[in-house]
């Protein structure tokens, strides 16, 4: 009898805990809608300046508070799967294994493309050569040290730019010699500005919207024109070249909402893809997924 009583007490305890947690969860959903409430959004560090601008305008328009957490791509996915946040901005859609994870949780992720980004390559201002070929980068990553590249500098060993180039070169990891990594795009810019012979790999957004910390360093770097594989022309990471599809190191940007209900993640996703959000993308130097319309006012006397 004593054991049965203890069993019932245990079941009652867990039932109360479950009820309270569900009530708190439902209460959070009630406080949050597509245009109000508080949410944390995980953001790829390479596009942090762009998303900061989007959040500033969104918060000034609606009764919402968005907390931005900028991380490397691998760290983003770890946080997303651990439910630290269920909204993420990154440079790829979810892969099949990640989709299966949410399928088991009975959540259907909503993926929205909102921009096309460019991976920019930079060098020290004292370097006279401002051209670089993708084939030379691939050869260097495969261990060919006879190329003109002395060193590649990445923001983070777990970043989306590292994934991009390892996939491009068909390798599983970066070589240990001649490759450097830091913690942010800001540190890459500073390092290249202070060291000759290095090629920095950054999100182009950091060049168009630099922070006060790196503004002075930009005068000491070159932004390189890039030749694609099996191509014979060099192109700068400009908005026009992204639109024409000629810049070889372009990639799409997505916001992925895995909340599973109509919350602030849905509202912010719609904002990014909408008229105002796309104008902010256009102003940032990246290519909007949908080009905003232009209103022409014709006056007659």
From TrEMBL:
<feature type="domain" description="PBP">
    <location>
        <begin position="36"/>
        <end position="273"/>
    </location>
</feature>
<dbReference type="InterPro" id="IPR050811">
    <property type="entry name" value="Phosphate_ABC_transporter"/>
</dbReference>
<dbReference type="Pfam" id="PF12849">
    <property type="entry name" value="PBP_like_2"/>
</dbReference>
<keyword id="KW-0732">Signal</keyword>
<protein>
    <submittedName>
        <fullName>Substrate-binding domain-containing protein</fullName>
    </submittedName>
</protein>
<dbReference type="InterPro" id="IPR024370">
    <property type="entry name" value="PBP_domain"/>
</dbReference>
